[in-house]
Input
Amino acid sequence: MFDPITALKEYVRFPSVSTDSKYAEGMDGARSYICGLLKTLGFSLEVVETERHPIVYAERFGRPEWPHIVLYGHYDVQPADPFILWTSPAFAAEERNGRLYGRGAADNKGPTIVHMAALQSLLSKRPDLPLNITYVIEGEEEIGSPSMPAFFDRYGDRLAKADFMLVSDTGSPNTDQIVITTALRGLVDLEVRLTGPKVDLHSGIHGGAVYNPLQALSELCASLHLPDGSVNVPGFYDDVVPAEDWEREELKRYPETEASYRDLLDVPAFAPARGLNPLEAVRFGPTLELNGIGGGYQGEGSKTVIPREAFAKITCRLVANQDPIAIQDKVIATLEERCPQGVRLNVRRGGTAEAYLVVPPNRPNTPRDQPASLARAFAAADQAIESSFGRAPIYLREGGSIPVIADFKKRSGLDALMIGLFTPEDNLHAPDESFDLGLLSRAVTAFEQILSGIAAKD
Amino acid sequence: MFDPITALKEYVRFPSVSTDSKYAEGMDGARSYICGLLKTLGFSLEVVETERHPIVYAERFGRPEWPHIVLYGHYDVQPADPFILWTSPAFAAEERNGRLYGRGAADNKGPTIVHMAALQSLLSKRPDLPLNITYVIEGEEEIGSPSMPAFFDRYGDRLAKADFMLVSDTGSPNTDQIVITTALRGLVDLEVRLTGPKVDLHSGIHGGAVYNPLQALSELCASLHLPDGSVNVPGFYDDVVPAEDWEREELKRYPETEASYRDLLDVPAFAPARGLNPLEAVRFGPTLELNGIGGGYQGEGSKTVIPREAFAKITCRLVANQDPIAIQDKVIATLEERCPQGVRLNVRRGGTAEAYLVVPPNRPNTPRDQPASLARAFAAADQAIESSFGRAPIYLREGGSIPVIADFKKRSGLDALMIGLFTPEDNLHAPDESFDLGLLSRAVTAFEQILSGIAAKD
Output
């Protein structure tokens, strides 16, 4: 038997940053660790090799007539820099005031441990639990899941025999109000590099003659939004399907106001795209964000230089019905068209992912072919959450992306029941990421009930 | 007796980066090294303490009626990063194909060694040379000479007894065509920092609601130029005095065409401000340049983050008659006025320096109070350069800045005869900076003649 908090600490201490090859050892450690837990739970294991980080595939299979769920998660984490802004070291897994601090504590290591601890508890009481379970825990979620298409080529048919997925890689507004996520945004990643002179130039000797790549980059990046906050890329909004009325109503139950949200982030003002308030904009609208810009001298003091190059890292979040490749093409075409003549433009195409949308049972426009087992699962979750957390869940679209969820649907026909275990205080992708240990404990209880509710009657 | 090439190598090997406190030891080493050379030449030395890097003040004083010149230089250098772009290590002083490579080899260590070697040679033949010489070699030129005002408070009157200055911290088009520089641009340094949310945010969970500081920075920076290449800061050009006709004519003698200049820099197109061609723009016009921009994720791969802050390092080059403080105020006021409401703006005021202009003897609008000794010096230089290099010098404004030259004029009434020893191949402020050793040798001969010509008749 493992203790969930101890297990989470051990798991967080492996620095499993998938984007940076320096962290190969941390990736190996995190993967081995969860394999060990799955073995303890009696799963049969396959470690599926990929070009970078292997996928953990594990099965608990009893009888074909039992319900069959897929539990999805990821063992990789975002980079932890800037390290200097962390109160305790990013991979120390320090416990303070009922929270566990560390990169990945919430995204996605905490929820993974919740699921496993719930399963452990349930199996200790019902060793013959009539539930087939397939675990898929990948190591490339934070870099856009590039190996999953090949994985689906090999495993898609086996996965298609399952009924649906259970996922906890989404957020809730606080530790009392759990959200069931009905949509995820898609993602488009790209990087622009502008090159001017062949070497860095002295800004006195050559300043005035050449187009400074930093100026060109600023102009290009500035052109990508309009003053009303919308993305200024022709055709960007063409295929966007707006949110349903019931979704806007459900959002009103969300325990966050514009004022409280502004206080949380400590921004002087919001800047949502036209037609959406800030709370809607992060859920119902697509975005284009600059994630990093660099060029020239960044050290102490000043350096009078015209740099030879400058870059910008850009990602877009897409909503259901937007085609990521088409959007990537449009952004690149726009950059090429607007690039000043004085510099040369290079674009690195990064990963893309489609958005995902599930309409819960008994809502307007629920697809007719939705499996009955999914409706049972939603009902079990509704009940377990209300009993563990004291409040019924809110059904809401989420702004984040889990690139593979749309692929599970497309390749294996699996819809997803997504139960959010992050809260805004968790600082996902930011310094001082943490996970609430009180929530962890209540979530273990809830997931034990959910898994029990999904299982077939003995 | 020291050998000039050996001396230059030794001098370059001290990494004297003034802007970065990590290089304190290199600063000390470089300063001690030139103090040693000056002692060898028989100078009496004072090391003038400042808040950061001491000034070397040295005198050779015979009789009051002898001509008295000031030789100015600097022992500090620009930062050498990005180190990865150097062919040999930045402070290794490696000799390849008749050039000495290293940060500071040209700016300003090579010319300093030229002056000292010429003096050494001349004194070996005429130990009683009737010439009073004051050396001022500072350690803060590359950071805007912040200690020089206090230095002038203490030494300005002593310096005022000199006739004029001799300086080699400017450029020439190639190793055969020397330029006598008639103007230097002024400098304004500042840094903008924009802050948005209190921590880096997950671009999925929060993307769409907040004003991304990188977007705000791009918009602010993009606003600082107009499509015609001019600086878009109200009042920026108010006090600019355009170049004289003779200066535009003299520039036509300059052995560089737009095409050859474009090949040299390898830019796809030029972007001079309205009304100037590229060769004029770097000499006759003021500029605003972005020297560095940074914010968000800059590592390998991607990171889906909205960063909490972003910065831009900005410098302006000013021409004669522009007031640097007034320009700094105007740029800051413009940034404040244009800063989006969604972010907070902070500006660090860096150093400023006035531009400098000397009209050579017998040109239109030469000031009537110009000292006769300066005319003699110009004539001696004219002759010595033609005899050593085979061509008469070109009289030209320079795009770079030597912040203290205007101060020497203002505080001690000294005009400057500036003889350019850098060439474009030297890669000043850039990777693979180097100094041509053939030019070094010819320049030593020329300066020996110039010093001899300035000296009183025995």
In short: Residues 186-240+286-350 of chain B form a domain with the Alpha-Beta Plaits fold (CATH 3.30.70.360). Chain B has two domains: 4-185+355-454, 186-240+286-350.
